[in-house]
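Entry for zinc ion complex. Fields follow.
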Amino acid sequence: MKKQISQSLVLFVLMCVVSACAPSGQDSQVALDESFGNLKASESAADWELSPSNFSTKLEELRASNTSSKEFCTALMKRSDEELALISDELNDSENQDLVADCSVEYKARVAAYFKAMKTNPKKRAGKGIKTEVRVFDPHAIRFIKGTESILKDKEVILTFDDGPTVETSSQIVNTLRRFNNAKAMFFMVGERVQNSANGKFAAQIYREGHTVASHSMHHLGTKTLFKNEGKAALDREIFKAHDLIGEKAGHISPYMRFPGGTSNEAIDAYVYGEGLSIWHWNMDSLDFKTPNPAEIVARVKRLLEKNRKGVILFHDIKHQTVLALPEIMHYLEDNNYKLILPVEK
Ligand SMILES: [Zn+2]
């Protein structure tokens, strides 16, 4: 009997040692399952960006709990190519390089193969040309631009790109816009992004090319929670400092901003536009964060345009799928006689 107990004990200890030595990827798998599940359930960019289980937040938690790259990679490599493509911009984030160290070559190859297969070959045809009209949106007269679509005319569209800039993808977005008769858009930039010197230089190029530069906060955190915990100090840091920083890097910033996830509350709105910034929303969400398949984004934007006929479209210039979808969307706008509106403050 005694021998039996000691044999089981040895076996138990051995199993513990073995399981501790061989990472099962359990925690990372739970985190990834939660993130992908939440992404599927998200009905808008706001839902996803402010969810506690979005990828950036989950990856941050894994980093904080000292998850090894071996463990994380064991879980990551079980996901499909489509899922890897979907979260590739978060994986590529400089903060996550230790976490992905063990599988960075492998996941990058799988993501590249996925997007290569998704690359459409839009017919190189001469476009009719799409017109951009520069229009003044005075932040003192129109301080709270939530229902912007109501002040646009039929077939008038404002293209907006959030969360960038990153040289790799934003430059391709800008190249596409240039090809379409120098089309112009609004870029709601994140302060943290422009702190990187290459991205900061690219922010300046975006402004020099005639696009409208605006702010999308410093660290892309949930403004409502920050405000509840820290009051105005959080807004000074996240909104106004970001505004100054982006303006400094880009060479100019318009007095326009968009909250992360697009949401705030009355007290925050009052403070922010009391300081002279107008707040921008959207009425057409491309959901480009939800699928890596550009054809799905193109189809969705076409449906939204058919339904609304005018308004503000939300895209993310950090997404490779958006880079791939944009040419077809521009062709659609051109073929259907849409006019682009570029808001400027004066
Ligand atoms: Zn955002």
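NOTE: The longest strand covers residues 156-162.
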